[in-house]
Amino acid sequence: MKKLDSSQIRAMYLEFFKEHGHTVEPSASLVPKDDPSLLWINSGVATMKKYFDGSVVPKNHRLTSSQKSIRTNDIENVGKTARHHTLFEMLGNFSVGDYFKEEAIKWAFELLTSPKWFGWDKDKLYMTVYPKDTDAKKFWQEAGVEPDHLVDMDDNFWDIGQGPSGPDTEIFYDRGEKYDNLAPDDPENYPGGENERYLEVWNIVFSQFNHKPDDTYEPLPRKNIDTGMGLERVTSIFEDAPTNFETDLFMPIIRKAEEFSNGKKYGVNKQDDVDFKIIADHARAITFAIGDGALPSNVGRGYVIRRLIRRAIVSAHRLGIKGNFLYKLVPVVGEIMKSYYPEVLEQKDYLAKVIHSEEKRFNETLSDGLQLLNELIDNLKESNKDTVDGKDAFKLYDTYGFPFEMTKEYLEDAGYSVDEDGFKSEMKKQKDRARNARGDDKSMGVQRDLLIEIKTPSKYVGYTQLEVKDAELLDIIVDEKLVDSVNDGVAEVIFDETPFYAEMGGQVADKGVIEDENGEVVAKVTDVQHAPNGQNLHTIDVVKPLQKGNKYYLKVDEQFHRLVENNHTATHLLDQSLRNVLGDHTQQAGSLVEPNYLRFDFTHFGSVTDEDLQKVEDLVNEQIFKAEPVTTVETDQETGKKMGAIALFDNKYGDKVRVVSAGDYSVEFCGGNHVKNTSSLGLFKIVSESGVGAGVRRIEAVTSKAAFEYLDHKEALLNKIAGQVKTSQIEEVPGKVAQLQDQIKKLQQKQEKLESKIASQQADSVFDDVKEVNGTKLITGVLNVSGMDQLRQLADTWRTKNLSDVLVLGTENSGKANLIVAVSDDKVKAGVKAGDIIKSIAKEINGGGGGRPNMAQAGGANPAGLPSAMKAAADWLENN
User: Is residue 809 domain-shared with residue 687, that is, in the same domain?
Assistant: First the structure.
């Protein structure tokens, strides 16, 4: 067999399909764009959905890619099996209504067996097919596969519910007898069975049916090919590696991790190997995920990253790795992947900074988790129980990052067990919550065939003009049917040329009217979107009849359009200013450009300080006041990049691109509308800055008239405050407010002293009333104090003076009840616990609480129950 490393395999795969007429699509960001059904890009086809569902028609219907992907449904298995990963690379070739089974099968066999390409022995290959798919069997045999190397599999039918579906064929490689882990007569010892010998390397899906809502199937108007080949698996075959981890994709990371461990080596101890694998896998995943804009947090993608980092650190602890180390693996990952992903090394300092920060934080969390685990063991001892509750085990897993296996092992060493079923129940609840949070969107839509068929040419002229006098009406669509005329209601229309901008890149669509030759309004344009073949598709409210073939006067709402232009140009200035102030790691993560405001999302680790926000705002306004010309050049991508243009938000650009420059300050690829001079913006004002997700911040801002109105409103508020604090000048307001705050502080201190004095006076009479209950000295009392803080102060006084064995105090505050119980150290040793008493008496105030053995507190909604709570405390002592 040839000796190919992972980089060579990837390059060879893409080159093969490029020679067969495919366009090589770059690996997209792991963070899905405009796809709420996915937490991560989890396959090559996930980035092709827009082509398969017909929302976009690709320039080339043959596509190929090597797509980085993340799957998190089996994190627990990573490191324990040969081929489970969180991050992996999926090689794929795709046909969007072009070639089908015969070509896909013929090319797959050629790539795998031709000496020019992979050069594998064809006798090592087995193919599973759907039993009813006689065409696939025939084409495999025509390609050169022997009939006894074809295996029928009933499961070989790809179906996700409503939408495209069809049979598939899977390719297996026979790794030989040395990988036999089953007896020869074992029912799973065959290609497609659960065994280590026959390794699945490629799946080819023949998407040929539409799964309808009534669970029937109809042929798709355009049949598609979707394939997936795992780079990690194929590399293990070329390198004859027992698992994916012994390949050049993982071993350099494992070797580096060995350097940090306490003399431990990979391949010596089974548990150590699991931990090394976890570290190698998770280091890759977090590096790429953070590089694509996701950051550690407690929700969504950020939660996944945080969990992976924690799991790797726990493994490191078992290997004897001390201190923070994970961030040092980033350059190793970058070196492995640099041939196809050079951006990892380019961002290595930023990636290391993020990971290092999270590591430091978790080392403290890890100690807290161990403390909680020890407390659980202590509780088991005290209660004479032998099993930790599943909810507590899940808390260790979910909050502190403890794998269930580690909790189980730790408890077993101490002679205890854990409720595994309870843990699984909590895990299922979490997965259900995550699934519901992603919504019910299907992973692929049904083809909208009519729009795909419409290929009439249409030209957008809105960059230079906002009116077109003789636009010919080419197509009218009503209820998914082409019609020759429409009299009323809502319709979709296409003209031979149009000044109406179709929504794209965050810029909203133009609005306006359509007039007939007499100047009468026949329709209102409410929305404009791109049709699959690129035309501007206008949604209109019909006022008077429209006829296909007639010519109409199209007029964009100029004021609406100009305000949108202002805000769009402002986003370019804002983007560059953020890079200048915060650093080049910031990337646009979305935007919305409306006429009355703009919204700009960007990646950044941590909040933006007020000082930095002011710097950003000042930089934007500086460019506005300099009155820089805004120019647009249409060129090719390569020339645009040489001009220094920045590609925003992972956009896909065509052969011809528009490069928009605001002086020499901002240069970006952009297909939107912009002002001619920055001075048109008038003024730029940031309204708010906030976090909207894991590692994503949002700025909302206004320009022009909206900025003036915003500042005018703020000035009116200041004038109102000036009147309220009795100053004649706005400039005097801060000093006056500071003076008032000082007065309030002094009054509060005076009030607190008075309340403490009153509380002490009340306490004196209460403390004198000591009862004896069942051999225990008890003081109880309902006081009129300000709240729990004063109850705690009185409890401290009681403890200092050693006035009784047990103290129970209560008070009403703002319609709520507060209770506190304190127990002397001697009584705690004798088995009387404040927490037990508070739980017993809190029900009298319709509340609950807890605390330490020597002090506990509770709150409730029924202050009228406070006297009953005092009596309940005495009853508890009487009976315990």
Answer: no
The annotation status of 317 as a binding-site residue, yes or no, is: no
Are the C-beta atoms of 825 and 854 separated by less than 8 Å?
A: yes
What is the CB neighbour count within 10 angstroms for residue 800? 8
Amino acid at 664: D
E-strand ranges in 334-400 read 387-388
Instruction: Please determine, for residue 435, whether its predicted confidence score (pLDDT) is greater than 80.
Output: no
| 432 & 465 share domain | no
Give the count of alpha carbons within 13 A of 96, CB side only. 24
* Residue carrying structure tokens 């949108």: 564
Domain that includes residue 286, residue range? 279-437
Q: Is 85 annotated as a binding residue?
A: no
pLDDT of residue 409: 64
586 plus 552 within the same structural domain: no
Which among 117, 111, 113, 145 has a CA at the least distance from the CA of 129? 145
Q: What is the pLDDT of residues 503-534, one digit of tens each?
A: 988 899 999 999 999 999 999 999 999 998 88
Q: Is the pLDDT of residue 447 over 60?
A: no
Question: What span, in angstroms and rounded, lies between the C-alpha atoms of 700 and 689?
Answer: 7
Cβ contacts of residue 859 below 8 Å, gap of 6+?
788, 816, 817, 818, 819, 845, 847, 848, 849
User: How many structural domains is the chain composed of?
Assistant: 5
Q: pTM score, two decimals?
A: 0.68
CATH label of the domain that carries residue 545: 2.40.30.130
| Same domain for 125 and 155 | yes
Q: Cα–Cα–Cα angle for 296, 297, 300, nearest 5°?
A: 100
CATH of the domain at 621: 3.30.980.10
Mean pLDDT of the chain: 90
Q: What is the pLDDT of residue 648?
A: 54
Question: Does the residue 727 lie in any domain?
Answer: no
Regarding whether 579 and 529 lie in a shared domain, the answer is no
Q: Is 670 annotated as a binding residue?
A: yes
Per the DSSP assignment, residues forming a β-bridge with 524 are: 513, 541
Per-position b or e across 48-80, b if 16+ CB within 10 A of its CB: bbbbbbbbbbbeebbbbbbbbbbbbeebeebbe
CATH of the domain at 45: 3.30.930.10
User: Looking at residue 783, which CATH number applies to its domain?
Assistant: 3.10.310.40
Give dist(CA 596, CA 719) in Å, integer: 25
Does one domain contain both 43 and 122?
A: yes
Binned at pLDDT 50, 70 and 90, residue 582 comes out as very high
